[in-house]
Amino acid sequence: MNRALRIAGTRWSVLLALALVPLNLAWSPETTREVAWRAVEFFPPDLARQVRKNHELYDRGIREGLSAPPAWRAGPPGRLQQALADQAGRCARDLRRPVPLGELVRELGVLAVRVADANDPLAVAHADAREPAYGAAYESYVDSILGRLRIVYYGRDRRLGRHEDLMAFAAATMNRSRSFYTLVGEEFYRTGRLRSWKTFDDLSVTFGVAGVCLSHAMTDLANLADWIWQLGGGMVPTPRPTPAGHVGPTITVGLGGGFPERRRPPKGKPAMPRSSIQLPPP
Prior knowledge:
This protein is mostly helical and about 280 residues long. The chain contains eleven helices and no strands. Helix 2 packs across helix 11 (about 205-230), helix 3 crosses helix 4 (about 55-65) and helix 4 packs across helix 6.
């Protein structure tokens, strides 16, 4: 009985602390959903097919994740680290039971929000007393540049093995996001006073922070999807090969297709003489 009271008291103390600390999430529901759906392109093909088939359930899971209590969506004193680890573990267990794949897809939608929050610098840290003044502005700024950001996939995460410590994975993700936290506030106060986000250009620090953090969010979600699917016995394709001696992450971007150089105006002499071979008529 005393133990139950202590646990209840701890939960209430966390909620009270969060009520006293203004909770600013730098990414809007629209941005979070955009990243969640872009990550599907890098899911194992069979799992991605199920997500697209059950797209309404994936969106429902995203909405459920977004409507979670503040304590589940923020770093300390919030419990985002535990929430992320628990949700990833739940998805893996559900696949092994198994549950209907539509239900798994819904749970993946919830996981997408947890991963996005863990990669949100303003969600994992609250040390800057000026944050309430620019938190909502940064959310609007990220929304405004989303169409210009190049969100990239950084490749397979070697930390995720068959027996991964999910709490450690969540902690490492949040620590990486905290390293970007002070940069956002510094950009808003670069002139000595609060600036409007509308004055930022695409060379600003905030633009780079948004691109890197959203790319990490997409990559983390895709890697967790690989891990979950593989634990359930699903097929996970071999990652794209990288050059020999390559160090660092693999960056994969979507190509527009075609040969853009063909549209360039011809200049200078050709590198080789024109061929004299005559092809037969078709």
